[in-house]
Design brief:
By secondary structure, the protein is of the alpha+beta class. The chain folds into two domains: 137 residues, Alpha-Beta Plaits, CATH 3.30.70; 38 residues. 41% of the residues lie in helices and 21% in strands.
């Protein structure tokens, strides 16, 4: 069984972070594309959160792959002030569906910051509890368009459709069972059974 590692770090962006409202930052788009392209073959997954010029990133995968990636990130000129927030062996992945999920700091994260009396998204100052709370929030938050799970990216629409069907199956089974029970109960009340 592989040694599964979750590594979380914070850093400050080294590029211009200002963009017009509603537009994507080209530097962030490039980083995200590169992450997704490079992480999938190494079976690394995780999340990248960006706000107020800071990155908060979680990497999950085989220990040697994650540590190797983190060592390369330490020398990446696109960010500075890299601070390791958490590094530990884990029994399972939190972000197994994403080679790299991306989230901008949103209103829910801003509320979390307010609760912690933080005015800005500065993950270098996060407590261990705040790091864990943010990971859960990022895991549970949805993207406008979620990439296919690791291992199915690039396999076409049929793999995505099969994955979507598996996600809907429990709800469909419950709804069908509830409908059948309602019909049976209605027939019993009418004295037809």
């Amino acid at each position: 069984m592989p040694d599964l590692l979750r590594l979380v770090y914070a850093s400050k962006a080294n590029f211009d972070t200002s963009v017009a409202e509603g537009e994507k930052n080209p530097a962030l788009s490039e980083i995200l594309t590169q992450c997704r392209r490079n992480n999938e073959p190494k079976n690394i997954c995780g999340v990248l959160c960006y706000g107020d010029g800071f990155f908060f990133q979680c990497l999950e995968g085989d220990r040697s792959a994650v540590e190797g990636l983190y060592d390369r990130l330490l020398n990446d000129g696109r960010h500075r002030d890299i601070t390791l927030l958490s590094k530990r062996a884990v029994p399972q992945r939190m972000f197994r569906q994403w080679s790299m999920k991306f989230m901008n700091v949103d209103s829910k994260i801003r509320r979390m910051l307010q609760i912690e009396n933080l005015d800005e998204f500065q993950p270098h100052s996060f407590s261990d509890l705040m790091v864990e709370r943010l990971l859960v929030e990022l895991r549970d938050a949805s993207e406008k368009r979620r990439p296919a799970p690791i291992g199915t990216q690039g396999r076409g629409a049929s793999a995505r459709q099969a994955g979507a069907a598996r996600e809907l199956m429990p709800g469909l089974v419950f709804a069908t069972a509830a409908g059948v029970l309602a019909i049976v109960f209605g027939l019993m009340l009418a004295g037809l059974i």
